[in-house]
Known about the structure:
Layout: E1 12-15, H1 19-27, H2 30-33, E2 41-47, E3 50-52, E4 78-85, E5 99-108, E6 116-119, E7 133-141, H3 166-172, E8 180-186, H4 192-199
Parallel strand pairs: 2-8
Antiparallel strand pairs: 1-2, 2-3, 4-5, 4-7, 5-6, 7-8
InterPro entries: PEBP, PEBP-like_sf, PEBP_euk
Organism: Orchesella cincta
Pfam family, one: PBP
Amino acid sequence: xxxxxxxxxNFATATEPExxxxxxxxxxxxxxxxxxxxPKAVLEVKYGNLEVKLGxxxxxxxxxxxxxxxxxxxxxxxxxxxxxxxxxxxxKEPKFREFHHWxxxxxxxxxxxxxxxxxxxxxxxxxxxxxxxxxxxxxxxQPGKLTFDEKRISNRSGxxxxxxSIRKFAKKYNLGYPIAGNFFQAEWDDxxxxxxxxxxxxx
Length: 203
């Protein structure tokens, strides 16, 4: 079943992966840094009119609001969405791998707002001088309704966002491999200090 519903003008759909998608994820080392296996479908994501295109560069200013994501669904299934940065504080020294920006489980169809939000969305916020960071967006199909024991994190807090391994998280909840994914890259711009203030963290 392909769901076409949307709550605003932003949308995303999942398509079959092309060789360019596989090459992009391999080139930028999404596998093995984040995943063991490349997702079966490429998640086509838009921030307003801006598309996420397998590693293209989007600024923190451009991604400060969450995208609305739509994907091909089984109406009887629940889904989990995550967005992570494996490059905190930098790709060379990723001691905070992975910093999670968004984590929502028990999503019925594509209705993210009806899911169980574990971590509220915040956009990219690479520290100055740390170069490009990768931001990976993934969809998992759940085996059923899940009870999550993780602490809930608001979009006003940076505490508890670092050190998540989506690989371990997926294993813990028997999620298997993601069914769709995409990623973009970003580096510091002048919106980042505002985000840090919102999260109550320093540079």
